[in-house]
UniProtKB/TrEMBL annotation:
SMART domains: AAA (SM00382). Its main location: membrane. It comes from the Bacteria. GO terms for molecular function: ATP binding; hydrolase activity. It is found in: Cell membrane. The lineage of its organism: Bacteria, Pseudomonadati, Bacteroidota, Saprospiria, Saprospirales. This is Subfamily B ATP-binding cassette protein MsbA.
Length: 609
């Protein structure tokens, strides 16, 4: 129900349109029901079941059904007497036609007003979900699979649109029609109405039971779809490996397994869903048959006029479609709520890293960063990956992290901009815990050049600017020049406006790296976090990248994660990590002289080159 309340919350943003839609629906209902009362007196007079009424009733009250009937009969009699039966019939038909014309006009108006509401809610839900995803702590993304998230933002939201929003119209329209027609039925024959109503409740309970199962199946289906998206995404990213290992058949087999399982669940869902229409129709017809049987007996026994019974059936006919639509709406809502729950799950995830009350602002680094006895584990069920790490990164100095793979270098780098918080110990900036600063101010202090050049499907210009405001084209060009990127950029077909494709795949590895360096230069960060690229570049490209990095680092505070030890010889301090612990620290020459872990690493690398 919580998810449904949230949906109503989204609906509240469109109050005006929803009100217009509801008003249109009420008018639709009025014009649907208004034709019914005309039938009875007309049929009675036409078939001469009652004597023409020549005198109007003394008093007409809306609480006195008989007086209304008498008044209607009087008008009808007068009309038939003066205009003749045929003309009267033509008028009644004309009136019915007109009422249906208005009914449909207002029905369309209601749909017209609801369309922007439906599409608007889908847009809001997606925007909200996307913005929330970007806010979530990094830890979430390692545990949740990407495909699962993708399917929530695409197919689950779509499912909400097609299942729930699609039937909002029905929810806002049909009850009015049902209430109107039911009101007329009660006035005409309370006993018959109670009889019909009992049958309808029974039908509703049967349909409701099947609907509940649908919600459960829908959740399973969406999860399986998430697995399929995940697998596809993973395979597209690893195509090169799949091809080179000749693993196409193996991967296709694994994919087929998932796909089969999805199909299996889908079939079960479709079987249930498709049950709704035949079941509803059969139960509807059963109700009609019972009504005919029960009502005709009343007519035969003389306790009801045939014309009353016919107009009752007409009113009942008016209820069938809306009731059918409502039951279909119930099915769809159950299906959609499964999807909405999954969207909710993500929206309800709390963001663990948020600003403290009264958080400090900061627009420059004054003394630098310090780590004190920092330990870290990614989650409660994984082992600690950093133990008791302490070191300083003073302003203007360069500290390099070295050590074997999995030592914890990248993890330390992720703790500084608070992608994660330490499990114990503290990290301070200018003497204050990182958690005391406004997150945005803190992160603005850092420029990150990661191992993998992270670029987006956009122009070169936008990839360099990337979120910065008030930047001039001259500044962008200057940054590109410093990063040794300007020349290759101007050689592309549209220069700075060239689109670089998904993740920058229209560029070479070295070009991608130089773009990310230009991006970091433009931000002019106080502290640079540099995760050296491991992928080998050709000599010329490597020279251009190294040169750009040197220019970027000049005079800046920097934490370098060194993969090629030759690049960190000038660092002020080199910290050597092994399985999460600091095993050695000092300058390049000092460490070499000691002949410990660092010199072994250097020797190992020299042998490999
Ligand atoms: N998201 C994660 N969830 C759980 N464990 C992780 C996660 N990321 C890294 N680890 C683990 O943390 C340890 C340190 O990893 P980290 O990436 O910091 O090492 P590294 O020194 O940067 O390695 P490399 O030089 O290979 O990049 C490793 O044992 C790794 O398995």
């Amino acid at each position: 129900m919580n998810s449904f309340r949230r949906l109503l919350g989204y609906l509240a943003n469109y109050r005006g349109l929803v009100t217009l839609a509801i008003v249109s629906n009420v008018l639709t209902a009025i014009f649907t029901v208004v034709a019914i009362p005309l039938f009875q007196p007309f049929l009675e007079l036409l078939f001469e079941q009652v004597e023409p009424v020549t005198e109007a009733p003394a008093e007409v009250s809306i609480f006195d059904v008989e007086s209304i009937g008498q008044q209607a009969n009087f008008w009808m009699s007068e009309f038939i007497a003066t205009a003749g039966k045929e003309t009267a019939l033509a008028w009644v038909c004309g009136f019915i036609l007109l009422s249906f014309l208005f009914k449909n006009l207002f029905r369309y108006a209601a749909l017209f007003f609801m369309s922007p509401v439906r599409s608007g809610i889908v847009r809001d839900l997606r925007n909200h979900l996307y913005a929330h995803l970007l806010q979530l702590p990094m830890g979430y993304f390692t545990e949740e699979r990407k495909g699962n998230l993708l399917s929530r933002i695409t197919s689950d939201v779509q499912e909400v649109e097609s299942s729930i929003l699609n039937v909002l119209e029905a929810i806002f329209r049909e009850p009015f029609i049902i209430v109107g027609a039911l009101g007329y039925m009660i006035i005409t024959s309370p006993s018959l109405t109670v009889f019909v109503f009992g049958l309808m409740i029974f039908t509703g309970v049967v349909i409701g039971g099947v609907g509940k199962q649908l919600k459960r199946s829908s959740t399973v289906i969406q999860e399986k779809l998430g697995d399929i998206v995940s697998r596809t995404e993973e395979s597209l990213g690893g195509l090169r490996i799949i091809k080179s290992f000749g693993a196409e058949k193996y991967q296709a087999g694994r994919f087929a397994e998932l796909n089969d399982s999805y199909r299996h669940s889908l079939v079960r869902l479709l079987w249930r869903r498709d049950l709704s229409s035949p079941l509803t129709e059969f139960l509807g017809i059963a109700t009609v048959a019972l009504l005919l049987w029960y009502g005709s007996r009343e007519v035969f026994s003389g306790s009801m006029e045939a014309s009353t019974f016919i107009s009752f059936i007409f009113a009942f006919y008016m209820v069938i479609d809306p009731a059918k639509n409502l039951s279909k709406a119930w099915y769809n809502i159950q299906k959609g709520l499964g999807a909405l729950d999954r969207v909710e799950e993500v929206l309800d995830l709390p963001n663990a890293i948020v600003d403290n009350q009264g958080a400090r602002t900061r627009d420059a680094v004054e003394t630098g960063l310090s780590l004190r006895s920092v330990s870290f584990q990614y989650s409660n069920h994984t082992p600690e990956v950093l133990y008791d790490i302490s070191f300083d990164l003073p302003k203007g100095k360069v500290v390099a992290l070295a050590g074997g793979s999995g030592g914890g270098k990248s993890t330390i780098a992720d703790l500084l901009p608070r992608f994660y918080d330490p499990t114990s110990g503290s990290i301070t900036l200018d003497g204050h815990d990182l958690r005391d600063y406004r997150l945005k101010d803190l992160r603005d202090r850092f420029g990150i050049v990661s191992q993998e050049a992270i670029l987006f499907n956009d122009t070169i210009y936008n990839n360099i600017v990337f979120g910065l405001e008030n930047v001039t084209p001259d500044q962008v060009e200057e940054a590109a020049r410093v990063a040794n990127a300007h020349d290759f950029i101007t050689a592309t077909p549209a220069g700075y406006q060239t689109n670089i494709g998904d993740r920058g795949n229209k560029l070479s590895g070295g070009q991608r790296q130089r773009l990310t360096i230009a991006r970091a230069i433009l931000r002019n960060p106080d502290v640079l976090i540099l995760d050296e690229a491991t992928s080998a570049l050709d000599a010329e490209s490597e020279r251009l990248v190294q040169d750009a990095l040197q220019k970027l680092m000049a005079g800046r505070t920097a934490l370098i994660i060194a993969h090629r030890l030759s690049t960190i010889q000038n660092a002020d301090e080199i910290i050597v990590l092994d399985r999460g612990r600091i095993v050695e620290r000092g300058t390049h020459l000092g460490l070499l002289g000691r002949g410990g872990a660092y010199s072994k690493l250097v020797a190992l690398q020299a042998a490999n080159e």
